[in-house]
Structures are given as C-alpha cells and as structure tokens.
Write a structure and sequence with these properties.
11 helices; 2 strands; mainly alpha
C-alpha cells in the first residue's frame, strides 16, 4: 500500500508540473519541440507571406494542443488526488497514525528529491526550446527554410554580374585547376551567362538559339501552370470532403499509456482543422503563383512573336499542346490515385499511420461526411473552371477529369475487398501538393 501511495504521489507531482510548464509555454506563445508542427511546404522558392501564414497556423495549432493537454491533465490530477486520499484512508485502517506519519515523512523526502529533478529537467527544456526561437531553429535543426521564420529576416543581397563572373572564376580556379575539368565547368558557366542574356533580351545571341530557348521557357511555364492548376483543384476536392492527404496530416500525438478517448478526439479535431487551414493557405498562394505563370506565358508568347511568324508559332504551339496533353494526363492519373489512396486511409481507420495503436480510437462512431449532390459538385467545379480557365481551350478535358473525382466523394468506387495494385504501390509516395513531414511523439 505504501508503494502504491508513493507511485500515486509521483504521478500527481508529475502531472502538476506538466500543467505548470505547459501554461508557461502558452504565456510566451512558444511550443516545445514535441508539439511543433513539422509539416512544411517543400516548394523550391516559397512565398515569404505563405511561410508566415503557415507558421502562424502551425503555432495556433500547437497552442491549442497544449490547451487540450492542460484540460485533461487537470482531470487526471484530480483522479490521482482522489486515489491518494482513498489509499491514505485504507492505510490508516491497517497501521497507527504515528506509524503512518513516520513513513510519510520519509516519503516526503524522497518526493522532494523527485520534484527537484522534475523542475530542473523542465527548466532546462524550457530554456532549450526558447533558444530554438531565438536562433530561428523552430522546426528542425537543419532545414533550409528555418531561417525564414526568424524576425527581421532579409534575403541576401544578390551579386552583381561582375561579382558573379568573378565569383565563378574564383570557384573554378580554386577548386578545379588540378582536376583537368576547368574547361568543362567554364563552358557550363558560359551557358548560364548566355541563358541569362536571353532572359534579359540580349541581342548578342544567335537568333535560332534564342528562339529555341524561348520555346523551352514557354513550355516550362505551361507545365508549371498546369501543375499549379491541378494542385488547386485537388486541394479543393480534399477540402470539400474534409479529408487530408498524408503529407498534410498532423502526426503529433500523446504518448500516454492509456489516453482519454475524449482527449484523442479533441486533438484529432484540432489536427484536422490545422490541416484544412494548411490546404487553404496553399490554395491561396497557388492562385497567386498561377497568375504569375500566366502573366509570364503571355509575355513570353509576345516576345516569341517578335522573333517568328504567327504561323511558325502556331505550328510549334500545336506540337507543344500534344506534349502538354500527355503531361496533364499523367498529372490527373497520379492525383486521382493519390486521392483514392488517401480516402481509403479514412475508411480503414489508418489515417495517422498504418500501424499506430491509437488509430482505432479516432474511428469510433466515425461517419463519412454527407456527399455533395451532383448539382453542388458540378456547380463548384464550373465556378473554378469558368473563373480561371474559360479561355485556355481545355475546359472540357478538365471538367471530365474532375467529374471522375465525384465518384470518390459519393463512395461509388469503393467496393469491399477490391484491390488496386497500382494504388498500393504508390501508398508511400509523398504528398503531391509538395510538402514534407516528420513524425514527432510527445
């Protein structure tokens, strides 16, 4: 009974300090490492405003997690205190008050040392976590975007052309003078210079080569615009059915031995809302990126038409449209498979991980959302396409592809026992919206 009493008192002390430390984090609006959101966009050159909104959403989600943990930690502490009271009364029916007080005195000394260790550990952790924010290492300790979350961040001043060429020359002379590869690397640098001149409309470049480079740039922009369009369309589909692709799910979960089901339910709801906000942020900036691509496409088209005739451009454009049609077909097939795979995670209850012991606790009384009617679905899709693509000549193809997604939303294609080897083969692929994730347990 004494051992049980000591164990209960240790648990009560630990829970008290857990509440106190979490409250300290909330006061300064900082998150401990185990409660930070590690899902981040993996774009090559993300918009700083996107990163700012993303960081704010992640911070809000982490603060909400701490509030939920505090709420249930208070409940757990009350249970421990009730158990301590019951155990104390039971011991007093077995031994005298003086004997109990003697043992209790020794126990208090042990608990005092135990509490001292807790406070030192919590204090060190708080300082360590706080330093992460001061040094700009809030997400990971090596990620290339961490520095962009620090206050007063400024992009480095770009080198001038003279500095750039001088820097390249120093680079090759210092690192390649002895490997016999200097001429090759200097040749490559000259290619970069030539491409830069073409981008700036330089007149010292061969006309045929300049036209070819402009066509290459035009194709690249068209591919980017297509990819961005389907990124927006697919994210909107996920939001419609309130489902989250694997790469945008929040994997931070409590490591308690026997967590309260209501605690898990509230954490799951907070994680879902955070993920939905992530998708809305991505859509917002994807629209901006797409507008930029379309502007660049228009400028590049006009520039090409100053170099070649309309008929020559139309011929090249016709061949390019065929290539882009295949490219778009590949995108839609990939996103379609991904959507099915992600949706199946929710049906099987494995939407956090595929093996975690808490997954089933998120699926009790689970019900699929009310599917959209055909009119609602087609109306939303029509708004998307009419607003952004009425002039691109590809409306019918995209409407046809989106109509395939409606089957997923109505659950028509999910037959029990049906297997799809192609989908299973791609289960481990990262989120097609361009995100990275890391799993952290409290």
């Amino acid at each position: 009974m004494y051992d049980k009493l000591e164990k209960l008192m240790r648990k009560e002390l630990s829970k008290w300090w857990e509440i106190e430390s979490l409250q300290q984090y909330i006061e300064v609006e900082r998150a401990p490492r185990g409660l930070r959101i590690y899902t981040i966009p993996s774009y090559e050159d993300p918009d700083p405003e996107l990163l700012e909104e993303w960081a704010e959403n992640s911070k809000t989600s982490s603060l909400n997690m701490m509030k939920i943990l505090i709420k249930y930690a208070f409940k757990d502490r009350e249970k421990f205190m009730e158990e301590i009271d019951k155990t104390t009364k039971l011991i007093l029916t077995l031994v005298s008050q003086s004997a109990f007080e003697e043992v209790k005195g020794n126990l208090d000394k042990k608990l005092s040392k135990f509490e001292e260790k807790i406070t030192v550990k919590k204090h060190r952790k708080f300082i360590s976590d706080f330093k992460d924010y001061q040094s700009g290492r809030i997400l990971t300790f090596h990620h290339k975007y961490d520095h962009m979350y620090t206050e007063d961040y400024k992009d480095p001043t770009p080198l001038s052309d003279n500095e750039m060429s001088g820097s390249n020359l120093r680079l090759t002379e210092e690192s390649d003078a002895s490997d016999g590869n200097l001429s090759f690397r200097m040749h490559r640098i000259s290619q970069w210079t030539r491409d830069r001149d073409v981008q700036q409309g330089g007149s010292n470049v061969d006309l045929g080569l300049q036209v070819q480079l402009m066509h290459d740039k035009f194709e690249k922009l068209m591919r980017k615009e297509l990819s961005k369009w389907w990124e927006i369309a697919s994210l909107q589909q996920y939001i419609e059915v309130e489902r989250v692709p694997r790469g945008l799910r929040i994997y931070t979960i409590p490591s308690y031995e026997d967590p309260d089901p209501e605690l898990l339910e509230e954490l799951a709801e907070n994680s879902k809302n955070s993920s939905l906000n992530m998708m809305k942020i991505l859509i917002k900036y994807a629209f901006k990126d797409r507008e930029k691509f379309m502007e660049e496409i228009d400028k590049t088209t006009k520039l090409i038409l100053t170099l070649v005739s309309q008929s020559a451009f139309e011929e090249v454009k016709g061949n390019l449209d065929k290539k882009l049609s295949k490219f778009e077909e590949e995108i839609t097939v990939k996103k379609h498979r991904k959507f099915i795979s992600d949706f199946k995670d929710y049906q099987s209850g494995s939407f956090l991980t595929f093996h975690h012991k808490y997954d089933h606790m998120y699926t009790e009384d689970y019900k699929d959302p009310t599917p959209l009617s055909d009119n609602e679905m087609s109306g939303r899709n029509l708004r998307l396409t009419e607003e952004s693509d009425a002039s691109d000549g590809n409306l019918s193809f995209r409407m046809h592809r989106i109509s395939q997604w409606e089957g997923q939303n109505r659950g028509e294609i999910f037959n029990p026992g049906e297997e799809d080897e192609d989908i299973e083969a791609e289960e481990e692929e990262s989120c097609s919206e361009g995100t990275k994730k890391e799993k952290k347990v409290l």
